Amino acid sequence: MRLFYGWVIVAVGIVVTCLGIGTMMSLSVFLRPIAAEMGWSIAGVSAASTINFLAMGLASFAWGALSDRFGTRVVVLAGGALLGLGLSLASLAAELWQFQLAFGAIVGAAAGSTYAPLVATTAVWFTRHRSLAVALVSVGLGIGSMTIAPLATWMIGQSGWRSAMLVLGLIAWGTVVPAALLIRRPPAAAHAAGGEVGAPAEMSVAQALRTPQFAAIALTHFACCAAHSGPIFHMVSYAMSCGASRMTATTVFSVAGAGGLAGRIICALVADRIGAKPVLVAGLAVQALAVSLYLVARDIASLYALAVLFGLAYGGVMPLYAILVRQYFGARIMGSTFGAVAMVSTLGMALGPWAGGAVFDAFVSYSWLYVGSFVFGLGAVAIAMSFRPPRLALAAAPA
């Protein structure tokens, strides 16, 4: 039996998102070694992650529009080359601003070429098992957390943070660029199968971005990311403040990544049966609950248990936004519309690392970070409950 090439796209998506987002998120294990060696503040190093997400957000929309026009292969090739360059330059930084520019702006812009364009491409390739296929691509995010962070921790212990970051750059060049060559455009039939909620073929990007449905999806994604970005980024640092060793704290981070991997698959399978919206609302509610529990989790056992719950929740909801965008706005403008949603969401991702660093520097505690994250989590639940298909789509649907 011939293999459907869409599953090759899924495999490429897993590898590329693992390297692209995994290396970017690995800054959490570099945080204290860099601050200690260079004499930079925790907030200053954390700001590189904030710049990461701002750059990633701006680039996601641009990369998505380019993928609609020129294809995802070109986008991922360029992004892979840029990713290796940013990591290599960051390993040579002598001043904080140099590190923030290289790791923050360049790596962030490169990471924007991985997740959103590949998720958009995967959603167009599939008509059956679409939620599962998109979830499997986003599994790369969880695999990245499970593998890149421990690898970086080991390399830091062996040869220091500079060598570790340089090696990550070389791995990015040697993996992402060749993998991009396997990407193909989806067949024309996949585009024609496009809007099962009735998304009209004539809807333009400008029309889609003006709908209240786009605003609702984008704002929900923003609040969701604002809720989990700080707790994720500062998870290693928080565990160490509770008495865990660096490697033990890193394994807590990896457990959360494993939970996110499982959550993506579970939520995708359920969403294929009952729809994306109810699964999204439930997942966001669990995420808010998990964030609030960090206010009482102190010992290692509770941190591991909470990492599983938190990972299941934040991982499970992430692929569902792409499914809703595909359903509401169709396949033809998928790269641009999902790229725009990702751009807004990364503003939320940018907020957490900076806020967590500022809170810790001011209070030597992360408590107020978790309070703020919980409030954003509840906001995400409230907005998600308002989702409705676009009226323009409904008007175009057959009676």
Helix and strand topology:
Elements: H1 6-25, H2 27-38, H3 42-70, H4 72-90, H5 96-111, H6 115-125, H7 130-159, H8 161-180, H9 188-192, H10 205-209, H11 212-233, H12 235-241, H13 246-274, H14 276-293, H15 300-317, H16 320-329, H17 334-363, H18 367-384, H19 391-396
Helix pairs in contact: 1-5, 1-6, 1-7, 1-8, 2-3, 2-7, 3-4, 3-5, 3-6, 3-17, 4-5, 4-8, 6-7, 6-17, 7-8, 7-13, 11-14, 11-16, 11-17, 11-18, 12-13, 13-14, 13-15, 14-15, 14-16, 14-18, 16-17, 17-18
The percent range for strand residues is under 5%
User: How would you classify the helix and strand content by structural class?
Assistant: mainly alpha
What's the pLDDT, averaged over the residues? 86
Measure the end-to-end span.
39 Å
CATH topology, which one? Growth Hormone, Chain: A
| Broad shape | globular
| Unreliable segments of 5+ consecutive residues | 192-198, 392-399
Count the DSSP helices.
19
Notable features of this structure?
about 400 residues; mainly alpha; Growth Hormone, Chain: A; 19 helices; about 0% strand
